[in-house]
């Protein structure tokens, strides 16, 4: 077996050295009744070539985003990632290192984490960020739990613009705790819900996504004001981090916790994971924060260095009193984020964001020109929602048959019915060309004809 | 023409200068100091070429930011150099033995990286039409089949994103199952030797944790479990047990323990962090588990990546299977049906909710399946056996000099020593571990599990050759003999040769500096103002 260095001679010598007759003596504690001889139901080892053929055949059954006009978003986005990023994250020293528990020999990982935290804090307009969460959805659930700890209240109000699957994750994690409740507002494609009316003294936090799941930009300031008046926290959520290059930061609008999906920078679509959750807050709340934190310090010779810090919040020290059970986070995905963000900088990110916005505006105009198609959003970034006269699921399937992946039918995620059944969330990024947009408009015209 | 017959001098001659200890740059040859990007980056150039968009009318309402984000950039060559230099300050499995007990630092085959990057896996969107990604669901389904077969179970929740997230999933399923029976139970039993994630997870899901002490041999006795069950009659929701446990031992009474918890109406959560020791040797389902997460990044070698991403699918017993979270794949003969929302549920299916957006860690699934296919049933079993063989080889190589807390018995895939061999030497477990760094080794897991004093948990994995183990054992013996000979200077303040000396963690925690802030501008002399 190519991955196992021991030869049969080695094994025999080593068993003799250990002083046992056979390998099974080392497994003697396994009750005899359950000991296995062989796994006859599973295939035997394969060569590298055989594995490549088998998995390659599976991969070939899928339609990849780069192979056709592609406008699917709704929480995961197709962007161009510089070749440098994937090369660097595959360096052995990053790829095959563990969580940096021994800082003297993991300064590479730690310094990159410190850079990541700084980038995320500056992007979101917050004072501190952690070393990443699994993804945006689990980060949102952790943010709600953190707000409960900070406010000592347990009612979360969720905007109807929050990604439906994020809402489900929050409900699953926090609604089942003793005394906790979640008020989830109905779907709000246009950003016109009255969330202020839902905030009262019982409210622990208000969770608002901007750009919303439907692409609508939301003014967070009045929500922050109302929340603060009731000693509640505003949790600002985003799924498209590129938008922060062009939009006023959630921190500047008064958010107390900012949490979002960082996949767009540095990370491929990969069918939904692994991604990287970004999580930032105010300095005064750091001891209630979930997740790993990297901090600056000095070594015995006074040289600057970095360590994992404030671990007294964490599970391996505090056990059942920990702020979260998180252990592994998204190390390598956060490294990819940091490298790509380093190549962009603030100006590069703003330019990337402008190109995204321009493409989305051009697409919205092209689709709105089709009879019966309506763009619902008054203000949007690189994603918007259209209403068509036909069922959205059928429209998307018909478009796919014409070689265009035209977006996400809202009814795939939200089964409330009614008007939602005719809505499609459409995204456009820097990868889309004029030809892509023309192909989409033409195909949609034909499907709706 | 005469040839130079002298060649290149290999020794410093009398004329050469002695090697200076301080360099102008602070670098030491290949060991280079590297500033933060914020100290070397710039705002007027970057590493990504992109044309500025033509004039168009933005549709951003009044949401535009007034200034660009305060983040400098590096060009491509500068980026490359910066991160390559940083990488060289990292220890890695590819560079040396990484004996972190319970973390399972085994070889990461590069075939798996190549497979995960096929456009048919890496460049597909979780919400593109299901009809356009049949291969994705086929892959998830095949991996699920392997996991169920290896564990002897009939259901698996694939979506949890790491081990602790899998624990959370399993415990939520248990909570839901208890509620479905119309019961309320408030307590979860956790042995003292458990990973910190176990009690943290139980608390996160809303349970009170009651600790079970370990026996003198490091294992959990069924009597201790029964005692706690009886003390909290009708209140125990579950037992969370790691098997093989964190002392590197297989729990010999695990079947009886499972029966005891089942008889009391509770569920058996098994922490699968150490499943790598018994793959192909025993099926956890046969031991009576109700739920067990599998760290694909441990047992099935998806790279640890400096702290993730992981992946933590949870296998479930038939009793818990109906409560598996959304989304899942329902098999209809050869047909795969994707169930994403509650309106698609059929008889008996009562998911407790959803763990994450989308379908979980697809990139890790591809790597894990590639690893399984490569090994096959025979290779997986051999890997478990070699892991256990290597750990025992280290054990017998060191047991006369170091101290085994539970006697000279065989261990599973990792061997646990305590610090009694360091008694009266003035050398602590921490000092000892840091001295290993100077010898070119990553230290073993220290001070865990908590059930022994100054724990040192060594897991060599199956990826080490015999020569590598021999050198490791010889090095450890040399270190122990130094400590016992009173050579404290080798340990106190170690490491001496790493990119950094020991770091001040107390200062870091007392006054946390968690991001870079531009230094105050230097005051300009008045005559220059």
Please provide a written account of the structure.
The complex is a heterodimer of chains A (449) and B (529). With 449 residues, chain A is an alpha/beta fold. Chain A folds into 3 domains: 8-60, no CATH class; 65-80 and 345-448, Aspartate Aminotransferase, domain 1 (Alpha-Beta Complex); 83-340, Aspartate Aminotransferase, domain 2 (3-Layer(aba) Sandwich), CATH 3.40.640. Chain A is built from 12 helices and 13 strands. Chain A has helices at residues 8-18, 48-60, 83-89, 92-95, 107-124, 136-151, 164-174, 221-229, 315-318, 331-368, 392-401, 434-448; strands at residues 128-129, 155-158, 181-184, 203-209, 233-238, 257-261, 277-281, 294-298, 304-308, 374-375, 383-387, 408-409, 423-427. In chain A, the strands form 3 sheets. In chain A, strands 1-7-6-5-4-2-3 form a 7-stranded mixed beta sheet, with helices on both faces. Chain A starts with 7 loop residues before the first helix and ends with a helix. The relative contact order of chain A is 0.14. The mean pLDDT of chain A is 96. Chain B is α/β, with parallel strands linked by helices and 529 residues long. Chain B folds into 3 domains: 30-41 and 72-89, no CATH class; 113-371, 3-Layer(aba) Sandwich (Aspartate Aminotransferase, domain 2), CATH 3.40.640; 378-501, Alpha-Beta Complex (Aspartate Aminotransferase, domain 1). In chain B, 32% of the residues lie in helices and 9% in strands. The radius of gyration of chain B is 28 Å and the shape is globular. The chains are: A alpha/beta (449), B alpha/beta (529). Chains A and B meet through helix 1, helix 2, helix 3, helix 4 and helix 5 of A and helix 2, helix 3, helix 4, helix 5 and helix 6 of B.
Any descriptors?
heterodimer; A: 449 residues; alpha/beta; Aspartate Aminotransferase, domain 1; Aspartate Aminotransferase, domain 2; 3 domains; 13% strand; B: alpha/beta; seven-stranded mixed sheet; three-stranded antiparallel sheet
